[in-house]
C-alpha cells in the first residue's frame, strides 16, 4: 500500500511539472463554444450535427456541451467554455428567462453570444437564429383547412404550457382558425411535447370527444403518440405535426401522418456556426436571422 | 506501516480527488488556474449543500429522494416572495421553514408511519414536483431583485458567495455530527436501531430530525440555484437527488447507515464537480460523459468494498 501510494505521488508530481511546461504551447486557433439545451431529443441532435459539419467545413474547432434541460447545468457549461477561451458562444437556451445570467457570464468576458431556436429574455444578444413559429402555426392550420375543404373539427395538442414554442405555434394556428364559423377546435390540451403524453392525452380525448377529423400537434413527438392512440381506437383523422423529425418524415411517407411543419435544426446549427465565424473575422451580422419552415407532405 | 495504511484508508476519497485533479491537469492546462478552481467550487456548492443534509439521512440508514423537488418548491417560493414582497429576509426565512416542514412531513411518515424511507420520499418527490407546477403554473418565475441574485453571483474577498454558504453549512453539520449528543445518536441509530432504542434513545425524533435537516439543506440549495440563475424554473433540481446520493457514497458513507463522515461527503461532491468540469474542459462528447461518471462511481465503491474486507 505504502509503495503504491508513494509511486502514485511521485508519478503525479512528475506529470504535474510536465503539464506546467505544456502551458506555453496552447492552441492558437479560435474556438467556438456551443451549449445545447438537451441532446435527449433528435431535434437538437440534428442541430448539433449541422453545427459540427459547418465548423469542420470552415476549419474551426467547436466544443459542444449538453445542458440536460437544467438551467443550472447550462450556466456551469457556459462558465467552463469561457474558461476554455472560446471566441463566440452559440447557445440554445433551456429556458428563455433562466438563460439571462448565463449569457451575462459570457458577455462579461467580452464573448459575443448567438442564441438559437429559443430567444433570451432580459439580455441583449448579438444575434438570434430561429424558425418563425407563428408562421408555422398558420401553415399548419391552412394545410388542414385546404385538405378538408375549409370545414374542420380540430383537436389541438399543445406543448409545455408557457414555453415560447407553445405560445407562438398556438398563436399562429388560432389566428387562422378562430372566428372561422366552419372550424371548431373541439379540444385543446397540453401533452408537454412528449410522445407518451401525446398518446395518453389523445386516448382521453377519443373517449371524451370522438367527433373530430383533424389533429394539430405542436410537435412531432406528440403527433406520433396521437397516431398510436388513433390507430388503437380505429379512428381516422388528419394528423399534422411540427418539427420535421426523421420519425415524423417517415410517418408522412408511410401515410400515417398527413404532414409535418418542418423546422430545419441542422440549418439553424449550420447558420449559427457560419455567423459565429463571421464575428470572429470581425464582420457584422444581422440581429435576427429567420430560418425557413416547410410543409412536408407525401 | 499499519498506521500509514489506516491513514490512507481514512483519506482515500481525498487521495482519489487529488489523483483525479492530477490526471485532468495533465490533459488540459486550463484546469489548474484559480478562476477555474473557483468555478468548480461554485458549481459544486449546490450539490454539496444538499449532500450534507443527505448524509444525515443516509447515516441513519434512510434515503431522501425528494430533495430535488424540495429545491424546486422552495426556489419558486423564494422567487415569488422576492418579486411580490421584495423582502429578502422574508423570502429566505419562509423558504427554509417550508423546506423544514416538508422534511418533517417525510420524517414523521418514516418514523411514526413506519413506511420505508424510499417509498415516502419517492412519493414526496412526485408530490412536491407537482406542487411546484401548480404553484408556478408551469412557467418560470423571473425578474428577481439585485439583492437576491447577490447570493448566487457575488464574491466576498474574491470567494464566490455560494462557496461561503457551503462552508458555513459544512461547519454547522460537522459540529452537529461530531460534537453533539444528537450526532452520536445518528450514528447509533444507523449502526443498530434496536440497540439504539433499547439504550433509551428516542429513535423516532432522531429519524424525523434528519429529514428536517435534509429539507433545510435542500431549501438552501433551492435559494442558491434560483439566485444563481436569476429565475425559478418548475423543473429545477430534477435528478439532483441522485447526484447528492452519489456524493455521499463517493465520500465513503455506507448506504446501510452508521458509517461515514460529513467531510467525506464534501470530497465526494468535489469529485463529481471536478469530473463534470474536467470532462467539459477536455472536450469529452456529452454522450460519453455520463458513461464516465457512472464508471467512476462504480470504481470508487468497488475500491471501498475491497478495502473493507
TrEMBL record, chain A:
Keywords: Signal. Belongs to the bacterial solute-binding protein 2 family. The keyword Signal applies. It comes from Caloramator fervidus. Transmembrane segments: none annotated. Its main location: other. This is Ribose transport system substrate-binding protein. Gene3D superfamilies: 3.40.50.2300. Residues 32-283 form the Periplasmic binding protein domain. GO terms for cellular component: cell envelope. It is found in: Cell envelope. One of its GO terms (molecular function) is carbohydrate binding. The lineage of its organism: Bacteria, Bacillati, Bacillota, Clostridia, Eubacteriales. Residues 1-20 form the signal peptide.
Automatic annotation (TrEMBL), chain B:
It holds the Pfam family BPD_transp_2. One of its GO terms (cellular component) is plasma membrane. It comes from the Bacteria. It is found in: Cell membrane. Its main location: membrane. The chain crosses the membrane at residues 7-28, 48-81, 88-109, 115-135, 156-177, 209-230, 242-275, 287-303. Signal peptide: none annotated. Keywords: Cell inner membrane, Cell membrane, Membrane, Transmembrane, Transmembrane helix, Transport. This is Ribose transport system permease protein. The lineage of its organism: Bacteria, Bacillati, Bacillota, Clostridia, Eubacteriales.
Amino acid at each position: 500500500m505504502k509503495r503504491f501510494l508513494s509511486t502514485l505521488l511521485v508519478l503525479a508530481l512528475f506529470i504535474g511539472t510536465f503539464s506546467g511546461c505544456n502551458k506555453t504551447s496552447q492552441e492558437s486557433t479560435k474556438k467556438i463554444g456551443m451549449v445545447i439545451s438537451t441532446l435527449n431529443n433528435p431535434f437538437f441532435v440534428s442541430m448539433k450535427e449541422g453545427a459540427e459539419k459547418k465548423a469542420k467545413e470552415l476549419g474551426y474547432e467547436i466544443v459542444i456541451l449538453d445542458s440536460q434541460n437544467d438551467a443550472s447545468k447550462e450556466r456551469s457549461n457556459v462558465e467552463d467554455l469561457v474558461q476554455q477561451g472560446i471566441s463566440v458562444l452559440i447557445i440554445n437556451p433551456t429556458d428563455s428567462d433562466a438563460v439571462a445570467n448565463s449569457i451575462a457570464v459570457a458577455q462579461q468576458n467580452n464573448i459575443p453570444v448567438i442564441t438559437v431556436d429559443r430567444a433570451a429574455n432580459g439580455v441583449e444578444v448579438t444575434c438570434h437564429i430561429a424558425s418563425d413559429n407563428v408562421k408555422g402555426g398558420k401553415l399548419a392550420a391552412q394545410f388542414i383547412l385546404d385538405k378538408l375543404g375549409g370545414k374542420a373539427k380540430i383537436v389541438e395538442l399543445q406543448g409545455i404550457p408557457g414555453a415560447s414554442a407553445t405560445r407562438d405555434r398556438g398563436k399562429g394556428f388560432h389566428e387562422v382558425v378562430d372566428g372561422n364559423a366552419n372550424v371548431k377546435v373541439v379540444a385543446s390540451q397540453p401533452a408537454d411535447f412528449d410522445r407518451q403524453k401525446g398518446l395518453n392525452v389523445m386516448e382521453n380525448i377519443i373517449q371524451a370527444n370522438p367527433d373530430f377529423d383533424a389533429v394539430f400537434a405542436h410537435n412531432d413527438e406528440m403527433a406520433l403518440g396521437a397516431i398510436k392512440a388513433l390507430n388503437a381506437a380505429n379512428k381516422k383523422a388528419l394528423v399534422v405535426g411540427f418539427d420535421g423529425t426523421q420519425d415524423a418524415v417517415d410517418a408522412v411517407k408511410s401515410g400515417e401522418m398527413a404532414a409535418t411543419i418542418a423546422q430545419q435544426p441542422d440549418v439553424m446549427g449550420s447558420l449559427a456556426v457560419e455567423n459565429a465565424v463571421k464575428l470572429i473575422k470581425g464582420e457584422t451580422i444581422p440581429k435576427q436571422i429567420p430560418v425557413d419552415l416547410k410543409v412536408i407532405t407525401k | 506501516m499499519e498506521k500509514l495504511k489506516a491513514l490512507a484508508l481514512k483519506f482515500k476519497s481525498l487521495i482519489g480527488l487529488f489523483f483525479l485533479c492530477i490526471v485532468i491537469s495533465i490533459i488540459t492546462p486550463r484546469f489548474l488556474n484559480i478562476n477555474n478552481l473557483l468555478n468548480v467550487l461554485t458549481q459544486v456548492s449546490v450539490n454539496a449543500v444538499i449532500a450534507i443534509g443527505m448524509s444525515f439521512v443516509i447515516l441513519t440508514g434512510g434515503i431522501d429522494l425528494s430533495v430535488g423537488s424540495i429545491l424546486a418548491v422552495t426556489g419558486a417560493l423564494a422567487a415569488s416572495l422576492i418579486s411580490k414582497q421584495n423582502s429578502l429576509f422574508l423570502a429566505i426565512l419562509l423558504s427554509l421553514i417550508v423546506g423544514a416542514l416538508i422534511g418533517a412531513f417525510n420524517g414523521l411518515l418514516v418514523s411514526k408511519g413506519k413506511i420505508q424511507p424510499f417509498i415516502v420520499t419517492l412519493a414526496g418527490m412526485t408530490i412536491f414536483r407537482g406542487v411546484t407546477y401548480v404553484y408556478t403554473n408551469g412557467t418560470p418565475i423571473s425578474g428577481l431583485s439585485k439583492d437576491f441574485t447577490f447570493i448566487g453571483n457575488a464574491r466576498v474577498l474574491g470567494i464566490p458567495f455560494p462557496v461561503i454558504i457551503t462552508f458555513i453549512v459544512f461547519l454547522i453539520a460537522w459540529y452537529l455530527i461530531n460534537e453533539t449528543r444528537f450526532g452520536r445518536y445518528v450514528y447509533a441509530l444507523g449502526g443498530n436501531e434496536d440497540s439504539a432504542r433499547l439504550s433509551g434513545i428516542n429513535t423516532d425524533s432522531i429519524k424525523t430530525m434528519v429529514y428536517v435537516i435534509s429539507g433545510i439543506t435542500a431549501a438552501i440549495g433551492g435559494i442558491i440555484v434560483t439566485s444563481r440563475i436569476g429565475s425559478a424554473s418548475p423543473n429545477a433540481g430534477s435528478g439532483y437527488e441522485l447526484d447528492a446520493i452519489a456524493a455521499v457514497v463517493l465520500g465513503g458513507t455506507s448506504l446501510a447507515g452508521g458509517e461515514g463522515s460529513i467531510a467525506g461527503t464534501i470530497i465526494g461532491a468535489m469529485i463529481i464537480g471536478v469530473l463534470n468540469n474536467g470532462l467539459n474542459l477536455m472536450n469529452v462528447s456529452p454522450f460519453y460523459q455520463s458513461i464516465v461518471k457512472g464508471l467512476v462511481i462504480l470504481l470508487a465503491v468497488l475500491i471501498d468494498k475491497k478495502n473493507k474486507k
